[in-house]
Write a structure and sequence with these properties.
Blueprint: H1 4-21, H2 25-44, H3 49-62, H4 68-73, H5 77-96, H6 98-108, H7 116-131, H8 136-154, H9 159-169, H10 180-184, H11 186-189, H12 193-218
Helix pairs in contact: 2-3, 6-7, 6-8, 7-8, 7-9, 7-12, 8-9, 9-12
Length: 226
Amino acid sequence: YILPEAKSDEVADVEQEIDATNTTPKKQMICGIIMVGVIGSMATSVVPLELAAVVGAVLCVLTGCITEKQAYNSIDWITIFLFAGMIPVATAMNTSGAGKLIAEFTVSLMGGNPSPYLVTAVLFGLAVILTQFMSNTASKALLCPVGIALSTQMGASPKAVLMAILIASSCAFASPVGTPPNTLVLGPGKYKFMDYVKCGGGLVAVSMIVAIIVIPIVWPFFPTAA
């Protein structure tokens, strides 16, 4: 037996939930206006990005487009804690010298007089690995000086090696923390880490093959004098 008061409260909650889930032209218009306002605020830098997003979310609740419960349930806690955990790890790799140690060890395996193609391939692969767990800016900053030094040692132009590092640092396809879009779809899509490795690994392989072939053609290792 349900008390009348309890029953009325429950019915009220259900009715509120149903009303919030019903899509009406009015709600669509309000959501559209809020979205345009948020994007406009972000684009014009009127307010910080995070503040514009929070204000937009609050307005959606206040205008009745969604309920407080729906707003709370829509928060992807996996993404938040994943970012919160991996950002310090990436920073630690950069500031502690762990990333530099990995780069130097990999370079030492190539020997004293490596081929330019080998250097390009190795640095491409190393940049791809690092960028899956570090920011692309950090991996570029870490490996570009190494690429310039090796190119100078071989008497080759550093343009090809540097371009390979730059492209590889953007190939953050093979992990859920390589780039924000990967992380954002982790929770809603119910993906696992190996899903990214399976799909992203193929993209990385294709990018590497194309880069090793095309980059030396556009930026020769030993350009002839004009």
